[in-house]
Structure formats: C-alpha cells, structure tokens
Design brief:
The chain is of the alpha/beta class and 580 residues long. It has 25 helices and 18 strands. The structure holds zinc ion. Residues 186-359, 421-569 form the Bacterial type II secretion system protein E domain.
Length: 580
C-alpha cells in the first residue's frame, strides 16, 4: 500500500480537473506510462502537453508544499557550501535556507516522489529536511551557476565556505552515516512504510527489474537490478530490516509472523495511476530474513517482432509458425531475459489471424483485448495439477492458439505436446541458459515419449539481453587490454587480434552505470523435417546446430561477434557470451 500516494489526489486527476490536459491526452500518456514506466507527469511534459512549471505547481498542490519560481532561487554561497560537492553535482536539489536553531534544512527539489534523495540528504547532512518545489531546469541552472563560480574562485577564496564544506562522502562513509542515522529511528513504526515507499519509487524511476533485500553480518543491504546488474546499494542499520521485510510481506499478503520458512507470492503494487504486477520471495538466512521483490513485464507490451530486434530470417520463421498455427514453439532464455515481452510480440501476430487465443500466465498481468487472459494462481495447491487443469480448460474452450507463460516444465510433455499435436498452436516459455540446439537435444534425449515430442516441436527461440554501453562515455580500449580479458576468460585471443574494442567508464549521462539499457538477441531454430531426422537418430547438438545454421539460423555467439565488431557490444559482454 503506497498510502501516501493513493490518499493524495492523483496527479492525472488534478490536471484533468484544472483543465490543464484533455481526457485524450491523459489516456495517451497512461498508455505511454505503461510502456515506459516513467512518471506520468514526466510523460506529459515530454509530449509538450504541459510545461514543467505546471507539473511542479500541480505536484506542489498534490503534496501540499510551496512552489517557487526560478527568480526566488538565490541561495548564498555559504549555504551552498554546506552541501558536499558530490551531492550538489547530482543537480537534483538546491538548498534554500538553513534553520540552525532547529537543525532544519529546506531544500528545493523538482519531484517529491523522490524519497531516496530526501533520505540521502537527510542522512548525509544530518539535518531534518523540508522541501519546496521548483522545476528541474531551474534547479540545474542554480547548481551550475554556483559550481562555475566556485571553480572560478578556485574554492579557496572564502575560508568560511571552505570550513563549512563537509568532506565529500565516500561510499563507505555514507553507509556508516546511514547506519548511525537510521539506528535512532528503529522505534519509528512508520519507518518501514516510508522506506518501502521510497525504495519502490526509486525502483520504478530507475526502471529496476528487481529489488534485493539482503541481511548481511552487521548490516542490511538493499540492491536494485537495473539493466541486468545489481547496483545502487543502500545500506541500512540492522533492526530496520524486520519492519522492511515485514512491510513487504503485508503488502504481498504473506504470513507476517512466519520467519523461518521461505514464502512467495504474486501481488499488484499501486503506483500513482497504475498497478504493477510483482512477485516476492522471502528466504530466512543465518543473518535474518531476506527478500527479493520482482516487477513483472506485462503481456500488453505493444512491441512487435521488429521492435524486439529479431533478424529477418528469425521473423520469417516465427510468422511461418503462426500462419500454420500447429505445433509447439518454445521461447527460452535465462531468468529475466525478456521472454514475456517476446511472447507479447507473438500475441500481436496471433491477434491478426482471427483465432481464439487464450493466454495462461502466472503473473497477474494484462493482455489488453488481444486474448482471453487467465491468471493461473498455483500458490494455493500443487502447481502441476493447477496448471494441468487450466490447460485442459483452455483446450475444452476450443482454443486455436494457446500461450503459456511460467508453467512447470513437466506440463510440456504431459499437456502441451498433446494439444499442439491436435492441430493447435502452442507457445510456451522455458527458463534455461542453453542454446537452441543444446535445448532441443536435451529435451528430446531426456524424454520418455520422444517421438511425440519430436513431431510436435516446431520452433525454438532462444533469447539473451545484452547491455548497451553508454555512447557518451564510450572509449576505445588499448590494444593489450583485450588480450588479457580473453586469456582470463580461457579464450585464445589470436582470432580477435584485428578487432577494436570499446568500453564505457560511466558518466552523468548514464548515471555512472556505463550501461544505458539492454537489447535482445535471438537464436531462432525451426524444427523442420531435416532437423526431425537428426533428432530421431540421436544426433549431437553440434550436428543440429550445423544443419540449422545452413538453413539460416544465426547462433547467439555469431550475433555477439557481429555486435562487438560494430562496437555495439563491449569486450566484457563478448567474452562472457563466448565463455557461456
Ligand atoms: Zn556514460
């Protein structure tokens, strides 16, 4: 429950009431928000429907705090100097006034939803923090003006300012300060609620896929999975984690008092106008109870096969499968490799064909109007039997194309193969890190009914998400450096001697993450009669791969090499992909 946000009037409603946006504009922005997970206000500003000042004024109204215009932002140098430069350089806030008698610092921010920033300022500066609102551009200009002046003054001209300046905090120092600051709040019951709110807000804002709550020896760490990597640690004091994990358990409807057994659940999280499908898993450990909160993709993603970046031969194979609409297609990839998004692109192709489409999905997502959508909740009973019943029901309903996302593996042979052999199309997801040829070989050779499986299988799509290096801080790598990385990965560097590699070191444009997003690559293997013949006589994965490559399949490794050659993939990405 994000009570603070729900109770307050939602920004969209406010803008509509004040006739600052039209119903059509708001609806358009809500659809955009679902795709991008950006804040609704941001989207409206970006589209030019409202100005940033208008948005700020409405946020001020919503949160009941003053809005100030750019001309009122005029902090003294002494006041600016009380803030460590590394905090100022984020350009997310500016100090307005300091009430030393009560230890209250008032700052100017563009977005009151940014609880993480407020917490951070509070913890580093050791003041109570109040805020007023101004546009982000006004704030950035005020910070820039001060930083430019400070560098001109060579930072030494004002001894008072120098004395007041707090040492730039290293990560370790910040963490220790956080611990000290938060220990005092252990008694504060509301703290868990606020912290969860700020964490969820931050996760949405940074488009994180997961949030990890990790009890360590002596501290408690929160990490965000952003673009596939865990980063942006927040360290809080021991003692808070009970409230934190407890709060999450309440949100997810788990047993609050059960702390010794792992638990998991799916639930919806309200965020502003929208509702996001999440899952949570808790795990007790020697240092206490940890948890992972995961945000799920929705099947109403709106992406087409072209948007996903699938190559021409791959797309042709998928279209062929959908046109025939017979047999079994498997979308495979490691955990969090975008399988649901790929299946949503299938859904779009399916929808154009005028058939009865049914989607069975474990997450409470949405498919728009494209299919009959069933959420399979297997948390109550035996997962296999719950799923089996759902698939049988779909079959009875006269389904033409069945899309199954997140079912147990045993269901594949038991239920999905028979349906796909009865003249219907079935698309299912499978979590595995194997390549298409390896996967095909493995599932057929481990099957007790391999003949039925071989005749049902039509298409294997294997997916990987690879990081996109930030183009603002991308630099060529010195020649010798690549050699070392190849050797460390146990690869012979000789074949790559002629290649030039790039590396991103991190810059403000990429929030010092060196990565700005992820892009999918696909390996699409069509199971035709040639391949079936190989499978029947128990051919090796190498033979399958060779035959498929002759028929137009591009392996993941070949695609990765092509990307590295075009300098779209970094050396690190290439080496980890080749070693896999
Ligand atoms: Zn960068």
């Amino acid at each position: 429950m994000l009570s603070e946000f729900i109770q307050k009037k939602r920004i969209g409603t406010l803008l509509l009431e004040k006739k600052l946006v039209t119903q059509e504009q708001l609806e358009w922005a809500l659809i955009k928000q679902r795709e991008s997970k950006c804040m609704l206000g941001e989207i409206l500003v970006e589209a030019g429907f409202i100005s940033e000042d208008t948005l700020c004024k409405m946020l001020a109204l919503q949160f009941g705090v003053p809005f100030i215009s750019e001309s009122e932002i005029n902090p003294s140098d002494e006041l600016m100097a009380t803030v460590p430069e590394n905090l100022l350089k984020m350009k997310k806030f500016v100090p307005l006034k300091l009430d030393t008698a009560n230890d209250i610092l008032t700052i100017i921010i563009p977005d009151p939803n940014n609880f993480v920033l407020l917490d951070h300022v509070k913890n580093v500066l050791k003041y109570h923090v109040k805020y007023v609102l101004a546009s982000s551009k006004a704030i950035e200009r005020a910070v820039n003006a001060y930083l430019n002046k400070a560098s001109r003054d060579d930072r030494t001209s004002s001894p008072a300012a120098a004395a007041a300046r707090i040492e730039p905090a290293s990560r370790e120092k910040v963490s220790r300060r956080d611990i000290a600051a938060l220990s005092e709040k252990e008694q504060d019951e509301a703290y868990g609620v606020n912290l969860v709110n700020s964490i969820v807000n931050y996760a949405f804002q940074e488009k994180a896929q997961e949030v990890h709550f990790e009890p360590l020896d002596g501290s408690f760490r929160i990490r965000f999975r952003i673009h596939g990597l865990l980063r942006d640690d927040i360290v809080v004091a021991r003692g808070v984690e009970g409230q934190l994990v407890g709060r999450l358990k309440i949100l997810a409807g788990l047993d609050f008092s059960e702390k010794r057994k792992p638990q998991k659940a799916m639930f919806n999280l309200e965020q502003g106008f929208d509702s996001f499908s999440c899952s949570i898993a808790t795990l007790p450990g020697v240092n206490g109870e940890g948890a992972v909160l995961r945000f799920h993709g929705t099947l109403f993603d709106g992406k087409t096969l072209e948007d996903l970046g699938m190559d021409d031969p791959g797309r042709r194979m998928v279209r062929r499968f959908m046109m025939r609409n017979r047999g079994l297609a498997i979308v495979a990839g490691p955990h969090d490799s975008g399988k649901t998004v790929t299946m949503s692109a299938f859904l779009r192709v399916m929808d154009q064909a005028g058939r009865k489409n049914i989607v069975l999905q474990s997450c409470p997502g949405s498919t728009g109007t494209m299919a009959h959508h069933v959420q399979v909740d297997a948390s109550a009973g035996d997962a296999v039997s719950v799923w089996r019943t759902a698939v049988e029901a779909a079959s009875d309903l006269g389904v033409d194309t069945l899309l199954v996302d997140g079912s147990p593996y045993t269901l594949l042979e038991e239920s999905l193969v028979p349906i796909s052999r009865s003249g219907r199309g079935v698309v299912t997801s499978l979590a595995t890190g194997a390549s298409a040829a390896d996967l095909l070989h493995d599932i057929v050779s481990s099957s007790s009914r391999s003949a039925a499986l071989i005749s049902a299988l039509s298409l294997i799509i294997v997916e990987r998400l690879i990081p996109v290096a930030c183009s603002q801080c991308r630099k060529p790598l010195p020649a010798g450096a690549a050699r070392v990385v190849f050797e460390e990965g146990g690869l012979n560097p000789a074949p790559f001697n002629q290649m030039n590699f790039v590396e991103s070191k991190g810059c403000p444009a990429c929030s010092h993450r060196s990565v700005t997003g992820r892009k999918a690559i696909f390996e699409v293997l069509e199971v035709n009669d040639d391949i079936r013949e190989l499978l029947i006589r128990g051919a090796s994965p190498q033979e399958i791969r060779k035959k498929s490559s002759e028929r137009g399949m591009k392996t993941l490794k070949v695609q990765l090499l092509e990307k590295a050659r075009r300098q779209e993939a970094t050396l690190g990405t290439l080496v980890s992909g080749l070693v896999e």
